[in-house]
Amino acid sequence: MCDKSKKRIIICNELISFCNSLLIDLDYRVTPAKELVESALSSENIRHLNFISSENILNKKQINSLLSENENNEISQFMYSLGKTDLKTQRKMIENFKELIKNSRNKYSEKHKRDSKLYLSFGMFFGIVFSLIWS
């Protein structure tokens, strides 16, 4: 359970990096959407976003990741809408999506911290119980 939270946090961090990469490109080059996504996904700090491809821009495919169903729907909608609006609206949309993912990351981080403490407490408790039984 704790490991799943960790992976969700990693995915959120990579989605934020993905958005940052998109924003940087929009500021300087304004690359076509398909090339922009392929370039951002080829970044060395993005390894866990294999559920996203440039095909998501052309076809509205359902994303299937470790994140919640609502978050997967948001990712699908975001990817499908890339490159379909003017530059100003595009930047705003990316910023809004990035904030959504930051909020999700914070939620998963809090859950991870809470669960980690719980698992540590259980481990300590059962360790003490077993040492008392075996002594």
Describe the overall structure.
The model has no long low-confidence stretch (mean pLDDT 86). This protein has 5 helices and no strands. The protein is mostly helical. It is elongated. Helices cover 75% and strands 0% of the residues. Helix 1 packs across helix 2 and helix 4 runs antiparallel to helix 5.
Q: Work out the radius of gyration.
A: 19 Å
- Spatial shape: elongated
Number of helices: 5
Low-pLDDT stretches? none
Helix percent band: over 70%
What is the structural class? mainly alpha
- Average pLDDT across residues? 86
Biggest pleated sheet:
none
Q: Quote the beta fraction.
A: under 5%
How many β-strand stretches?
0
Distance between the termini: 32 Å
Q: Could you spell the SSE succession in H and E letters?
A: HHHHH
Keywords:
135 residues, 5 helices
Short description:
The chain is mainly α. 75% of the residues lie in helices and 0% in strands.
Helix and strand layout, with pairings?
Blueprint: H1 2-28, H2 33-41, H3 55-58, H4 69-81, H5 87-134
